[in-house]
Write a structure and sequence with these properties.
The complex is a heterodimer of chains A (191) and B (208).
Chain A: H1 2-20, H2 27-34, H3 38-44, H4 48-71, H5 78-95, H6 97-105, H7 107-130, H8 144-160, H9 170-185
Helix pairs in contact in A: 1-2, 1-4, 2-3, 4-5, 4-7, 5-8, 5-9, 6-7, 7-8, 8-9
Chain B: H1 4-24, H2 27-34, H3 38-44, H4 49-74, H5 78-94, H6 97-105, H7 107-114, H8 117-130, H9 140-159, H10 170-188
């Protein structure tokens, strides 16, 4: 079936990148690991090596956020969901060996794509945060979608670049959520 | 006071990069555009293209910071300060021919400076350079933190455009500032009462 063949190629592409890095991954390697011919690889990825690499990155970015959504699905209030999201996502980002290795050794081969991916991932994070937003969370006049969009942008920013925040410290995560996220959308102390 | 030759060379480099990008711009192109000899160019930028590119980046970022600071200082209240500064940054960035060319065709030249640890560095710089110009309305620690937070937002809207927020349009920015930014800065970035990094337990002069 086309679906599973493409998936096998993406998995093979990911395995090669984790073993050899992006620049040293060839179509031959991917074909071999997937147990398919080069011709088959080009059939699914007519743009060749470049297209395959782009799609592996895109695919893994999607899987990263799916894993994140799974990990924080139990969170209750918006504050809790934001705290769990920031906490888990930052840890998952740091513990992602393949990503960290590529960022260290060949950042120029992945950064443009990740910037493009963050545009694609934003609606996903926005929708995921919106599921936990209630009217009580929002200042009068603010809509759920616009609040979720604003929050999602900042969440993605913190995951990639914590700045002055130590996101391995749960107290700081709580502080960040209260003062830099909820403060922007919430009703505030006056209610 | 800027030196005439280096300034002219940097201007020439920006012109070339805006037309052909970084990879295809040679020092000969830049010298020709600047109307000077290669020898003069090398005297101003010993070390060649890399040194020149770094000087271009430094000058353009400084220029952006100068414009943003001027808008902050000229404003009467926090809302006007933020709207003016963000829209100005948006206008400068979106209208910058060389930057836009590089972002479109050679993003790997610029993105490492603005992603992950590059962004951490940019945030620290924003805090240090812009923070002092927010202290009219916020305490010093809050001002640094606010400047970093604003930098995050501006970069996000510039790299992931939104149909609702046009960073170079004042009306659009004013809506964003009123709905999210001022409420956060006047209510939320009060670290003095809740502890956390950089907390100094001082009262915050918010929204004065």
């Amino acid at each position: 079936m086309a679906g599973s063949a493409r998936r096998r190629l993406l998995e093979a592409g990911y395995a090669c990148i984790s073993r050899y890095g992006i620049s040293k991954t060839t179509v031959e390697d991917v074909a071999r690991v997937a147990g398919m011919s080069r011709a088959t690889v080009y059939r699914y990825f007519p743009g060749g090596r470049e297209q395959l690499v782009r799609e592996v990155i895109s695919w893994e970015a999607g899987r990263f956020f799916a894993r994140l959504a799974e990990a924080v699905s139990g969170a209750g209030s918006l504050a809790e969901q934001l705290e769990e999201t920031v906490w888990f996502a930052r840890r998952a980002f740091l513990e992602h060996e393949v990503l960290q290795k590529v960022l260290e050794t060949e950042p120029e081969l992945i950064l443009p794509q990740l910037t493009v991916e963050s545009s694609r991932v934003l609606p996903f994070v926005r929708a995921f945060l919106a599921t936990h937003v209630t009217r009580a969370d929002l200042r009068a006049g603010l809509g759920v979608d616009e609040a979720a969009d604003f929050l999602a942008r900042l969440v993605l920013s913190y995951i990639a670049s914590p700045g002055s925040w130590d996101l391995s410290d749960r107290d700081q995560v709580r502080q960040l959520v209260a003062t830099e996220l909820l403060a922007a959308v919430g009703p505030g102390p006056a209610g | 006071m800027r030196d005439a030759v280096p300034d002219r060379v940097i201007g020439a480099a920006l012109g070339c990069i805006g037309r052909w990008g970084v990879a295809k711009t040679t020092l000969d192109d830049v010298a020709r555009e600047a109307g000077c000899s290669r020898a003069t160019l090398y005297r101003a930028f010993p070390g060649g293209k890399d040194v020149l590119l770094r000087a271009v980046a430094v000058r353009e970022v400084s220029s952006l910071m100068d414009s943003v600071r001027a808008r902050l200082d000229a404003a009467d209240d926090l809302e006007d300060a933020l709207v003016g500064a963000i829209a100005e940054a948006g206008r400068i960035v979106t209208g910058h021919a060389a930057l836009q060319f590089v972002l479109a065709y050679e993003p790997e030249v610029v993105l490492p400076e603005l992603a992950f640890s590059g962004m951490d560095r940019a945030l620290r710089a924003a805090g240090a350079l812009i923070g002092p110009h927010l202290t009219r309305w916020l305490g010093p620690d809050d001002a640094d933190r606010a400047a970093q937070w604003l930098c995050r937002l501006v970069v996000s809207y510039l790299t992931c455009p939104s149909p609702e927020v046009e960073v170079q349009d004042e009306e659009s920015v004013r809506r964003l500032v009123r709905r999210f930014v001022v409420p956060a800065l006047t209510a939320g970035l009060d670290h003095s009462s809740s502890g956390g990094p950089g907390c100094r337990n001082e009262p915050v002069a918010a929204g004065r």
